[in-house]
Structure formats: structure tokens, C-alpha cells
Design brief:
This protein is an alpha/beta fold and 635 residues long. The chain contains 20 helices and 21 strands. α10 links the parallel β7 and β8. It is elongated and about 95 Å long. The termini are far apart.
Length: 635
């Protein structure tokens, strides 16, 4: 190619860069190239892996490593510097080299969340992106962030890492969980059925089968759909399967059909969203009942947790009368929960409430599979267009029970028994321990985890172990009353959870933090009867305010046995209770130290709700079974 032509191509590339820059500026956003130095400022990298020299999809190269180099390119990697600069001359030379013999030298890049950032070779990438090349050779180092169960992008990335380890395919991406696992299953089944060489097949699959689909899908404007190309491709594979020898004209017909079907699916979703937006302004004369189903993890009569939710169900039946119809399914195990939720959705229930964090993943899957059904999941953090999450600030009344325990203990040894070392239970334990420390800095809390929801033998064993350690107050975060009953037999004061059991143990039961789920359920039902639907998530501060109902909303409450609590302690608790309800007292304000004497919260600072949601440390007055945090139960 002539020098004149190369210069002209540079000017064309520069114009594309300037248009890209203006596009983002006009929307009040930065139109320059992203840089990894800035992205990694608040990210904890736990490992760096050398991937060696590999082919990298150019579409996945999103920026440069160094902040200082970003202003030479627009966000789409097109050049921005004037044509008489040294930069432009080098770009033109690379363009000519590509036309004559191809760019052979590998670039150097980092990979982070399956996006690539160039350390050396930005202009090579720019030239090849301008020419719409699919791949470039790159010497890559992978930066692996710390796993964060609360971060959807990182959860998906860890799924990708498992997929990549087996296939070395990095061109395909999903924005929802489970996509990589579904694709892997399709590929493995094909390999086994056709006795293919895995390494050769994976390479062929990415370079030809997927790339040909992608090329035609984009030619037909498939990218206008609100999904990734990978998700559309997975839909295609489920419909037609893997076909190695397919003519472009036949592939085009099939891709057209896929786009048409996907458009119909998402057009229907848009209609539903539009109707939901208009529904508050439309008065309905319909007398159709709202059908609501509850899913419980245990039997009502054996679990205080389940019983508290069922009391909430009965509460809304009384409040709304013949406007609603409720049913419940009890004793649903985690592994069977999707089948139960699926059956309820197919029975055309308007709202399905899954009352355990154990059902988070199965509810999330059902929400995707049944877009016309509304779902609520208790204590989870995965939300969707038709799936909201909810919980309460039970740590607030538990903090107050900690004050009572700290005032009553004479031995300065308080036992604490709880199910799983998950953030929601560690948060409650720490709040309780802060309450103890408020009135008694010398007392210690000894924790025991049962690692189960209900198990009489394990709860008895753990409770007796605590009694052997010479405690004189026992706090329980369990779903049963077994710990309180055993404590009563040994003349030890107890603090309960979920419901009030003062009648069973009147001489030793001093306090309880408990739920009034009916308050939440009545608000939600009222909205649905008014054709309104509010999505609540746990993703940001504003959503967390709706996700976590506190003592001000009367969803979480404190019971105290006035016959056993000193009058002065009761006054302190009463004052702090009112301050918590008004939002003028912050339990997790500093200074706060963990068991390793690390400063977690500095003086005059407080933990944000996002920090509370991910809590993974123990307060410095806690001893005993200090297990590492988990985010999901095993069974």
C-alpha cells in the first residue's frame, strides 16, 4: 500500500476516534481509553498468573495499562493525535507493515475480568481494531481479584476461570450466572458423543463455529438486543445444536430465526416493564385475587424461624381478607427448592416468597425462567427484574440484648450459639458483643457454630460445651428453643431469637430479638394490589435502605423480661432503643477492633451498609469457634 493511502487511513481512524470522543463527552462521560492503573486502585488482587503468549480477541482489549497513555486514544482505541506527530508516523508504519506481511510481534498485556489492558503495543492494537481483525497475539498476565460473593461480576468471572481452565476459550462472555456451566455441558456432551479431540475441538469451536455466528449475528444487528452475543449464541446452540459443516447461507437463516425469537422474548419483557410503569396511573376494577405462595425450609412447628414467617403469612391474610389467597410449602430442602418453586410458578402464583438464604440461587434461576411471576427472597443478595430481596436489621435488637447480657453476667463469660458463620450471623454476633462491651468491657463472649439450621443433638452438645466453660448467660441465634431449655435446666439466663419463649422458661429467659414479618409482607402486598412492583436489591446504599428494615419500621423488635432485668439497665436499653428507631445512634461506630487487634473502624467513623453486608471479622471481646466466613450453606 502506498504511503499516501496509509496517511489517509490514519486520518480516517483519527476521525473515528474524534467521533467516539464527542459521543461520550456529549453524554457527560469520559471518552478516552480506560486504564488499568485507575481501575485497580480499590481492587484486592490475590494472584497473578502468567498465561504466556496466546491469541486474544481484539474485542476484549478494552484499554491501556498506564494512565499516562490513555489520552492518545479514544474509548474505541482509535488514535487522537495529529498526523504530523511521531505517534502518527509509527501508527502509519504499523498499518503498512500489516498490509505487507502482517503484525507479528506479540503485544504485552494484563487480563482482568476477561478484559485486556495493554502494557506495550497500544498502536498495534489500534491498527488491528481499525481493520476489524478478530485476534492479536499477546503475552498475557492474568490478575485475579479476591472472590466476592456479593459482586455479580466477580462471581461470573470465577465461573469463567473454571470454564477457561478446561477450554481455553475467552471470546465468549455472559452477564448472568450459569451461562458458562451450560455452555461447558453442551461442549463436553458433543465431544463425548462424537469422540472429538478436546483441545482441537475447543480451538475450532471458538475460531470458526462461534466466530461465524458472531459475524453474521452482528451483520443482522443482533447486538441491539439487551444480551451479550454469547447469550444469544447459547440460545442458538440449545435450539440447533453444534454443526461443524454449515454453509454461511444456512447459518444466516438460522441466526435470523434466533434473532426473531429473541426479539419476541424481549419485546414481551418490554411490554411487561411498560405496563408496570403505567400501572400506578391506571385504576383497576379487577376483583381477581392475588395468589401468594410461601416456601419454608423446615416444618412450622419445629422451627422458630419458619413459625415467625408463617405468623407473617397469617397476618396478611387477616389484613387483606378475600383480596389475597396464600398457601405454603414446608420442609423444602435446598437441593429440591428449584423444583418446588418451578411448580408454584407454573401454577400461576402472582408472588412466590422464599423465606431462606438457602433458596437464593434457586429463586434467582426461577426468576429468569419465569419472568411473569414476582419473587421475594429473604436474606439473599441476588436480584432480578422480577426478584426482590428483603431482610431486617435484626442486629439492632440483638445489640440491645447484648447490653442486658453484659449488665447481668457476674462471671463475665457469656455463651453464644449460632448456625453458620455467614455475614448475617457474624453481623448479629458482633452487634450483640458491642452491646455487651457498652456496659461491661471485661466480659467475653464465647461463640459456638452448629453449621446447621436445626439439629437437636448438635445444639445440645454445643450448649453443654458452653455451660462447661462456666458461662452464666447464653444467647442463641438458632431456629429452635433447645439452647434456652437446656440453659434453664442449668439455671443459666438465656436470650432468644425469632419468637418469645418466656412462658416455657420464665425464671431464666431475660430477652429476645424477634421478627414481625407481617409488617414487610403487608407493604409488599399493598403495592401489588395497586399494580405496583418495587425491585429491592443489596447492590447500593439506596437499595440497602429498603432491603434492611429496622426497628423504626417495627419489623425487628425487642422483648425484655422486666422481672429479671435491673431497673437501671432497662432505662439504658429504653433510651438506646428510641435512638435506634430515630436513626440517631450508630451501633457500628468506631473505634472498633477485631480479635487480632486490627482497627476495623476508626474513631468518629462508622461502617457503611455495604461493609455490614460483607462482614467477615469478629469483635475483640469474642472467643471460641472463630470460623472463617462463608456465604452459602452446604446443604
Amino acid at each position: 500500500m502506498k504511503r499516501y493511502d496509509s496517511s489517509k487511513e490514519y486520518l480516517n481512524a483519527k476521525k473515528r476516534g474524534e467521533r467516539e470522543l464527542d459521543f461520550w463527552k456529549n453524554r457527560g462521560k469520559d471518552g478516552y481509553l480506560a486504564d488499568l492503573e485507575s481501575i485497580l486502585k480499590n481492587v484486592q488482587i490475590i494472584n497473578e498468573v502468567n498465561l504466556g503468549i496466546i491469541e486474544v480477541p481484539l474485542k476484549n482489549i478494552k484499554g491501556t495499562f498506564y494512565k499516562s497513555r490513555r489520552s492518545a486514544f479514544s474509548k474505541n482505541f482509535m488514535p487522537l493525535l495529529e498526523e504530523n506527530t511521531e505517534f502518527a508516523i509509527k501508527w502509519i508504519n504499523l498499518f503498512e507493515a500489516q498490509q505487507e506481511e502482517g503484525i507479528r510481534d506479540a503485544i504485552i498485556a494484563y487480563e482482568f475480568l476477561n478484559k485486556f489492558y495493554v502494557v506495550e503495543g497500544n498502536k498495534r492494537v489500534s491498527v488491528l481494531k481499525y481493520l476489524d481483525s478478530p485476534f492479536i497475539m499477546a503475552n498475557v498476565r492474568r490478575l485475579i481479584p479476591k472472590y466476592d460473593e456479593m459482586d455479580l461480576n466477580i462471581r461470573i468471572y470465577y465461573e469463567f476461570l473454571d470454564f477457561y481452565e478446561k477450554t481455553k476459550i475467552n471470546m465468549i462472555w455472559f452477564k448472568r450466572e450459569g451461562g458458562f456451566k451450560e455452555l461447558e455441558e453442551i461442549l463436553i456432551n458433543y465431544i463425548e458423543e462424537n469422540m472429538e479431540n478436546p483441545k482441537e475441538f475447543f480451538n475450532f469451536f471458538e475460531k470458526f463455529i462461534y466466530w461465524n455466528f458472531r459475524k453474521i449475528y452482528h451483520e443482522l444487528n443482533g447486538e441491539k438486543l439487551p444480551i451479550t452475543t454469547g447469550e444469544a449464541f447459547l440460545f442458538y446452540l440449545k435450539k440447533y445444536g453444534i454443526e461443524k459443516a454449515l454453509l454461511d447461507k444456512d447459518l444466516k437463516l438460522k441466526v435470523k430465526e434466533v434473532i426473531k425469537e429473541l426479539e419476541e422474548i424481549y419485546l414481551e419483557e418490554k411490554k411487561n416493564i411498560f405496563q408496570e410503569m403505567l400501572s400506578p396511573f391506571i385504576k383497576s376494577n379487577s376483583t381477581q385475587k392475588l395468589n401468594i405462595a410461601f416456601v419454608y425450609r423446615n416444618y412450622i412447628e419445629e422451627s422458630t424461624w419458619v413459625k415467625s414467617h408463617d405468623l407473617g403469612r397469617k397476618y396478611i391474610e387477616e389484613i387483606f381478607g378475600d383480596k389475597i389467597n396464600t398457601i405454603y410449602v414446608e420442609n423444602v430442602s435446598k437441593d429440591k427448592s428449584y423444583d418446588v418453586i418451578k411448580e408454584l410458578a407454573e401454577q400461576n402464583h402472582d408472588l412466590i416468597i422464599t423465606t431462606s438464604v438457602d433458596y437464593m440461587n434457586s429463586t434467582y434461576k426461577a426468576a429468569i425462567d419465569y419472568p411473569n411471576t414476582k419473587f421475594l427472597n429473604c436474606a439473599g443478595y441476588k436480584s432480578y427484574r422480577n426478584l426482590s430481596v428483603y431482610f431486617g436489621r435484626i442486629y439492632q435488637p440483638m445489640f440491645l440484648t447484648g447490653i442486658i447480657a453484659g449488665a447481668i453476667t457476674k462471671k463475665n463469660k457469656i455463651g453464644y450459639i449460632a448456625p453458620y458463620p455467614m455475614p448475617l450471623f457474624i453481623r448479629t454476633l458482633n452487634a450483640f458483643s458491642l452491646g455487651v462491651k457498652t456496659v461491661n468491657p471485661h466480659a467475653k463472649i464465647i461463640v459456638k457454630w452448629t453449621n446447621c439450621w436445626i439439629n437437636e443433638d448438635i445444639e445440645s452438645e454445643k450448649t453443654l460445651d458452653l455451660i462447661k466453660e462456666n458461662i452464666d448467660v447464653l444467647a442463641s441465634n438458632m431456629d429452635s428453643t433447645i439452647p434456652q431449655l437446656i440453659a434453664d435446666k442449668h439455671k443459666i439466663y438465656s436470650i432468644g431469637y425469632n419468637v418469645i419463649t418466656q412462658e416455657e422458661t420464665p425464671d431464666t429467659y431475660i430477652a429476645s430479638a424477634y421478627w414481625k414479618w407481617g409488617k414487610i409482607y403487608s407493604k409488599i402486598v399493598k403495592k401489588l394490589l395497586n399494580n405496583e412492583w418495587e425491585i429491592t436489591t443489596s447492590k447500593n446504599l439506596e437499595d440497602l435502605k429498603r432491603y434492611w428494615y429496622g426497628m423504626d419500621s417495627k419489623v425487628v423488635k425487642l422483648y425484655k423480661n422486666k422481672n429479671l432485668i435491673p431497673g437501671q439497665t432497662e432505662k439504658i436499653v429504653g433510651v438506646l432503643k428510641e435512638l435506634l428507631k430515630k436513626g440517631t445512634y450508630d451501633i457500628f461506630s468506631g473505634p472498633i477492633y477485631d480479635t487480632n487487634k486490627n482497627l476495623i473502624v476508626d474513631r468518629n467513623e462508622s461502617l457503611l451498609d455495604e461493609d455490614l453486608l460483607k462482614m467477615n471479622w469478629y469483635l475483640d471481646n469474642i472467643e471460641g469457634d472463630l470460623q472463617n466466613v462463608i456465604f452459602n450453606t452446604e446443604k
